[in-house]
Design a protein that fits this description.
The protein is of the alpha/beta class. It folds into two domains: about 140 residues, Aspartate Aminotransferase, domain 1; about 240 residues, Aspartate Aminotransferase, domain 2, CATH 3.40.640. It has 13 helices and 15 strands. A seven-stranded mixed beta sheet has the order 2-8-7-6-5-3-4, with helices on both faces. Strands 9-10-15-12 form a four-stranded antiparallel beta sheet. Helix 1 packs antiparallel against helix 8. The C terminus is likely disordered. Bound molecules: pyridoxal-5'-phosphate. Pyridoxal-5'-phosphate binds next to helix 3. The site of pyridoxal-5'-phosphate has 14 residues, from helix 3.
């Protein structure tokens, strides 16, 4: 299954992207070679491809409790997010207020922040704050909605911390006020059950490469009856909702990945959660001055974000990389200075901890041996880096001996 040996990669960065499942790849391959017809063609060579797309749409719909006509294929999660938000603004051009959160993925956050220049209109954006555990105050949310609000866009689960928002309650509240509701569910779908059948939600974004399908394929759920204005204008594909010849193989891969997710969601919630907890508890126990970022239980089963005070996340990643361990940090290296991520800043994670955050995100392809290896390798890395950190030394006089400079930006 997974290649092992000296080059074996311990991949714990599954919230960034996932491995294409072998079953998914196998299902896709014929559509690159033998079965290359265009689904819009009149001949049966193309028609057989159209049938596979119908099947794929059914599989996606079935995973999230939707009907197949409510699924529109897009090129990625980002396109799905843009499509939903821009559609709402065009459907209600007189409404100029958007409610979102401070912890959205850049696909929503940066779009909302640039709407004025994109549409030529002034928009008012409310970015709801989160508390220290990454959660939203529902009363505050309710108060933020006005008659001028066109759409609420709130992610289902956070990509950095895994924190899950109360989407059901939030969607109900928006619905009772007649406001469209979008959720970026890219991190949730495939990891936790998402059932839209009794949920008054208008738009849901998902992305293939976060659930073992390839990169460059996404879908947008558009509830029957929700006003919709297409983003990509072109041919009549997707019943006129998204122009452009279908990315056939990837669409078939996404359908298979949804079937794969449905079959593995139980494992995701038990075995993977067990591995995640073992990893997280082990790190928090072995490393002093470490803390969990995000709510302990209202969280995806595969994700942990841990901060190690007085070290740089980037330095930790570089050292992990030497053991072929892939993780990610909650900061972005910009022009030589490390800015903690907007998510950790919004949560009020203290400066000394925000800089030393590491996100480990698992998938069904991770094993207990891998967790044990990370538990063996990571704590000494932190100890070593702290030995070189002047901040740590000034805070813990006498604890550490070696001097040296603070680890810089790679
Ligand atoms: C990865 C991700 C996206 C973007 O999806 P792409 O397919 O890479 O464009 C959007 N939102 C969240 C929460 C994500 O994790």
């Amino acid at each position: 299954m997974i290649s092992s040996g000296p080059d074996h990669v311990i991949y714990m960065d599954n919230n960034a992207t996932t491995r294409v499942a072998p079953e998914v790849l196998e299902e896709m391959l014929p559509y690159f070679s033998d079965v290359y017809g265009n689904p819009s063609s009149m001949h049966s060579f193309g028609g057989q491809v159209g049938k596979k797309i119908i099947e794929s749409r059914e599989k996606i719909a079935s995973l999230i409790g939707a009907s197949p006509e409510e699924i529109v294929f897009t090129s990625c999660g980002t396109e799905s997010d843009s499509t939903a938000i821009l559609s709402a603004l065009q459907s209600f051009p007189d409404k100029r207020h958007i409610v979102t959160t401070r912890v959205e993925h850049p696909a929503v956050k940066n779009l909302c922040e640039r709407l004025d220049s994109l549409t030529g209109h002034k928009h008012r954006i409310t970015q709801l704050p989160v508390d220290r555990e990454g959660l939203i105050d529902l009363e505050h949310y309710e108060e933020s909605l006005t008659d001028d609000t066109s759409i609420v866009s709130v992610m289902w689960a956070n990509n950095e911390t895994g924190v899950i928002f109360p989407i059901h309650e939030m969607a109900e509240i928006a619905k009772s006020r007649g406001i469209l509701f979008h959720s970026d569910a890219v991190q949730a779908i495939g990891k936790i059950p998402v059932d839209l059948s009794d949920l008054p939600i208008d738009f849901i974004s998902l992305s293939g490469h976060k659930l073992h399908a390839p990169k460059g394929i996404g879908a947008l759920y558009v509830r029957k009856g929700t006003p919709f204005v297409p983003f990509m204008i072109g041919g009549h594909q997707e019943k006129g909702r998204r122009g452009g010849t279908e990315n056939v193989a990837a669409i078939i891969g996404l359908g298979k990945a949804c079937e794969f997710a449905a079959a593995h969601i139980e494992e995701e919630n038990t075995r993977i959660k067990g591995l995640r907890d073992k990893l997280e508890n082990g790190l928090l126990e072995k490393v002093t001055n470490s803390m969990l970022n995000g709510h302990k239980t209202k969280r995806l089963p595969n994700t942990t974000s841990v901060s190690f005070e007085y070290v740089e996340g980037e330095s930790i990643l570089l050292h992990l990389d030497r053991y072929n361990i892939c993780a990610s940090s909650g900061s972005a290296c910009t022009s030589g200075s490390l800015e903690p991520s907007h998510v950790l800043r919004a949560m009020g994670v203290p400066f000394t901890a925000a800089h030393g955050s590491v996100r480990l995100s698992l998938s069904i392809f991770n094993t207990e041996e891998e967790v044990d290896l990370v538990l063996e390798k990571l704590p000494p890395i932190i100890e070593n880096l702290r030995g070189m950190s002047p901040f740590w030394q000034s805070e813990h006089k006498g604890n550490v001996g070696r001097g040296g400079s603070h680890c810089g930006c790679p």
